Amino acid sequence: MLMSRLIVALILIPLVIGGLFWLPPVGFAITIMIICMLGAWEWGQLAGIAPRQRILLPILYGLLLTAMLFTLHFDQRDIHLMKVAPLIWLAWWVVALCLVLSYPKSASLWRHSRSLRLCFGMLTLTPFFWGMIALRQYCYNRDHYIGSWWLLFIMFMVWGTDSGAYIFGKLFGQHKLAPKVSPRKTWEGFWGGITSSVLLAWLFTIFTPLNISARTLMVFTLLAPLSSVLGDLTESMFKREAKIKDSSNLIPGHGGILDRIDSLTAAVPVFACLLLLVFHTL
Fold it and tell me: What are the φ/ψ torsions at residue 3 (nearest 5 degrees)?
């Protein structure tokens, strides 16, 4: 099991990094759309949709995302809607935080509603989709690759948080972080993940062309990892309610698409909001 995880990771990581830097904007958008469509298919299981009916979800969701893509002007390398959409993104994650903190009581509000659970899925995947597109397009006229570096930066922080939490949790974990949502996560792992993320972010700024002030770096390295933990816990909550361990078996040794992007679904929108609305503008 461990060997298969390592082999798949060694294959996927170069592919992800290559896609960030070598795919043109349209190709990148289509790739992220396909990932989100697969995520929608997996979310159907979390929502309690029958296997035969689940095939309709990625098709319908793909049509929705395609319609959204037609609102973008890739020839201008600009996405004006990003100045409005972040408010919706943050509103959903505030709601998600409340659901996680109050689980399992909160489940009584949505447990028996497939429509509501599907809505939660769309509110999770769509901000991730828009955030990935917005960051890839960031300052594209000035530098075709600056957005790719920002995306790699947030991914390194999330990977550092996940890996650090796993290692420190295994070695020192005693106090449960959210036992009703994810019994294996501990406070020791949480702080280990944050520490690892901060260290990786600092190293990233040294060896890459990103020019980040100390104040900006401090905010990014705290809020983005915290939001990634929320994304992880949110998917864990829905999986626990659906009584499943992995969202699917699409990625050998790693589970499904949602299992790989759960942290990013929250971290990417929050990071995009910070970058586009707080520290810079499109």
Answer: -65, -40
> Higher pLDDT residue, 167 or 213?
167
SS (H, E, C) the chain: CHHHHHHHHHHHHHHHHHHHHHCCHHHHHHHHHHHHHHHHHHHHHHCCCCHHHHCHHHHHHHHHHHHHHCCCECCCCECHHHHCHHHHHHHHHHHHHHHHHCCCCCHHHHCCCHHHHHHHHHHHHHHHHHHHHHHHCCCCCCCCCHHHHHHHHHHHHHHHHHHHHHHHHHHHCCCEEECCCEEEEEHHHHHHHHHHHHHHHHHHHHHCCCCCCHHHHHHHHHHHHHHHHHHHHHHHHHHHHHCCCCCCCCECCCECHHHHHHHHHHHHHHHHHHHHHHHCCC
What is the CA angle 24-88-229, rounded to 5? 80
Measured over the CA atoms of residue 248, residue 251, residue 252 and residue 255, the dihedral's sign is negative
**Amino acid letter for position 143:** D
State how far the Cα of 256 lies from the Cα of 248, in Å rounded to an integer: 4
**What are the pLDDT digits (tens) for 184-207?**
889 999 999 899 888 888 888 888
The pTM for the full model equals: 0.90
Residue 140 φ then ψ, to 5°:
-65, -35
